[in-house]
Amino acid sequence: MKKVEVLIIGAGPAGSVCANLLLKAGVDCLLIDHCTFPRDKICGGGLTSKTWHLLERLIPGVPYEYNPVSHIRLNVDNQARCEFDIDEPIRIVQRKYFDHALLKHYQDHGGEFIQGAPDKIEERDGQIFVTLKDGMQIACHYLVGADGTNSFVRRYLKPDTDRGILAMEQYVEKSGDNSIDVTLSQSYCIGGYFYRFPNKEYDIVGFGDAATTPAKFRKVMNDNGVPEGKARGAFIYLSNDYPLHDHIILIGDAGGFANRSTCEGLYDAMRTAENAAKAITQNIPFRQVNAGIFRKMRKEMWVTKVFFSGFGFAIVKWLCHHPGAVKWIFDTKMRRETWLKKKDDSAR
Ligand SMILES: Cc1cc2nc3c(=O)[nH]c(=O)nc-3n(C[C@H](O)[C@H](O)[C@H](O)COP(=O)(O)OP(=O)(O)OC[C@H]3O[C@@H](n4cnc5c(N)ncnc54)[C@H](O)[C@@H]3O)c2cc1C
Description:
By secondary structure, the protein is of the alpha/beta class. The chain has ten helices and 15 strands. The two termini are 37 Å apart. Bound molecules: flavin-adenine dinucleotide. Flavin-adenine dinucleotide binds at residues 9-15, 32-35, 41-46, 117-118, 146-148, 152, 167, 169, 206, 234, 236, 252-254, 258, 263-266, 269.
């Protein structure tokens, strides 16, 4: 029986950031993942400026490769389009190498990582016991579920959680145009958009909405001139409908913390990782430390409904005639969230 203070399951950005922070705070923790790294992850890999600023503050100097992109083209139903340059670039990373860089940083600083997957979780005498599939047993005071959208830990807390929305992607040859394309259409159902993100080696095109199927994905790709190719899909769980537990904490996609409108998940994966580390080191319930993010998720639900309604589309189409305004909204949102985070940090 191995004993640790904190066991983190899942070494994606949420788990690795949390592990790095706990290690730095001197907390005895163990990180496990069923994959060997570097491993790929279905994702556009877009780090908005609020995300890379946050990462720089949480783990200063962690090295990772990216393609900076500042030019964005927005297209709505082939009826309105606009182009603009944002103040701070979106860094497009390849998740295979980005996630490995975060894990490597933790290991290089003495953090313990093992490859494994949980088979059983039990609670006895105020402790949590996790049995891995290879039979190894781990006892811990805190269990952090950072095991992504199909989380085993979340299913322990709520066995019947839904899977969320299906998002699909395809890698295509680099177009040579270092811009991001986003297409919105009222025919896409709730919460869907087509995107093209150029990373250093290839372009990623993707689409997901509340009713994605492979056939619908192919149609959206055809409409956007994408040639046939190998498509891959992943669910994104977008809910916080599980019971909160003071010693079993869900972060990142496991806890349903991706943005309800855009599915941008890396920012809140890192913020919830930071909140989990704070809850553990300061012995404050996670529900309290993370209250602002739970509120933000509820707010995003109704923002999404308005944004993807006929009214929302009419506003976005009108805004397309004023690219300066779209740029201002984007830059202001990035600055505001970066600034709010800084203010939050200095209040601690
Ligand atoms: C198609 C698509 C495009 C996206 N594009 C963007 C984007 O451009 N920008 C953005 O910010 N977000 C994007 N997202 C969301 C983003 O990918 C996620 O929010 C982010 O990966 C969440 O990080 P995480 O660490 O919580 O989970 P993950 O990155 O999924 O990591 C979970 C880890 O847990 C491990 N694991 C899972 N189950 C087990 C188990 N049973 N035992 C042990 N280990 C386990 C996995 O191997 C993995 O390493 C996209 C998502 C999708 C699906």
